Structure formats: structure tokens, C-alpha cells
Amino acid sequence: MLFRSQEELDAYNPLIPDGSNWKATFMLEYDDPSERAERLAEMVGIEDTVWLQVADCDKVYPIADEDLDRTTEEKTSSVHFMRYELSPSMVSALQQGAALAAGVDHPAYPVQIDKVPAGIRDSLTEDLDPVSVN
Q1: pTM for the full model?
Q2: Which one, 8, 42, 46, 93, has the greatest CB density within 10 A?
Q3: CA separation (Å) from 13 to 1, 81, 114?
Q4: Terminal Cα distance for the chain, rounded
């Protein structure tokens, strides 16, 4: 991707992880406009319920939409930006091959993945900075 201005860099740089966290874009996609409106109304607050869990550590919930609030009382947005802050012990455990789980605790969209595939976990772990672990 070629950036043409400082404005573009300022907009996209916050989306880059900084060694102790992961950043993600969460998208809810429904092709049919009426279904989309109905589902987004059911999922208010979903952006705060998407979790990750390293081994037996506590679940980590995101800091969502730091740039602006994308949810109203009537509906959530179809796109959210999330930051997951990991403790040094979580980073260390992942770098030693600990399991990673993921899920959503929202009643309108409950999902749980008990074990993220090793290749995906390993790729995500490569974004973590070993220097941040004390």
C-alpha cells in the first residue's frame, strides 16, 4: 500500500501493534440491508465482548474503537477497531507455545474457539516483542 500523505500515515499507524498487544479490525457483514439493520440492532455492545485467552490466563477483552464511538443505543457499527493488551506473562507463554482461545460473549452471537490453530497462533505471536517481557 502506498501512502500519499502524512494524514494517511496518521490514520493507519495506530492500527500497527507495538509489541505487547494485538490490533484487529472486527467486521460484521450482511449483504441484505434489512437483515444487516436487524442484526446490528441485536448486537449493540458486541465490540466489548470479543475475547482472547492465553492458556489458563484470564480472558482479555479489547479496548474497542479508541478513535470514536461506533455504537449507539439503537445499533452497533458493522466495523470496529480493537486493541488487545497482553501481560508480559501472556506474551512469554505464547512465545513458549501456549494455547490461544478466542470467542464472543455476546448473547446475540455466542462463539468460542477452544484452540486457535497453531499456525495462526504462531503468526500472531511473531508480532509480539520479546523485549517487552521482563
Answers
A1: 0.84
A2: 46
A3: 13, 13, 31
A4: 35
